[in-house]
Amino acid sequence: MSRKERYSCTITRDEDGRVLAITVDATDLEEGQRRVRVNGTRAARIAGPLHDVLRAGGVTGRAWTAARPITLDQVRGAQVELLLRAVKPLQRGDRIDRIAEAIAAMSREEASYWHAKSTRPGGLRALRILLTAGRAR
Q: What is the pTM assigned to this prediction?
């Protein structure tokens, strides 16, 4: 049996179907748990890029709209976790949009690389600077 990180993504919607929150739960190789949650306007802003990542990973439209968590493979799960972690502290909508779209457009290898780098001090900041071409916060 191979050991892999496990990921699930839960999308919380209001009664009209609008995205209210996005949560990624991860279990690492040592069974440690991580959770990243993005609420409100950030969640709504990243819904499109997130949907692009999930669709590229084979997630169906039915799973996208369902209330239950979506199980993700290791690569897509890492990319979704990176997406949420990268935009979570941001305030400006244009930066949220630019970073979310750039992460959604990353190759599997690039997303895996940045996911690994994001756990190191300054890793997420370096990614944000790269993706926004050094523009001010």
A: 0.89
Domain boundaries, the chain: 6-131
Residue 85 corresponds to which amino acid? Answer: R
Kindly report the backbone phi and psi dihedral angles of residue 18, in degrees, each rounded to the nearest multiple of 5, phi listed first.
-75, 140
DSSP the chain: -----EEEEEEEE-TT--EEEEEEEEE-TTS-EEEEEEEHHHHHHHHHHHHHHHHHTT--HHHHHSSSPEEE-HHHHHHHHHHHHHHTT---HHHHHHHHHHHHT--HHHHHHHHHHTTSTTHHHHHHHHHTTT---
pLDDT in tens, 60-110: 888 888 889 999 999 999 999 999 999 999 999 999 999 999 999 999 999
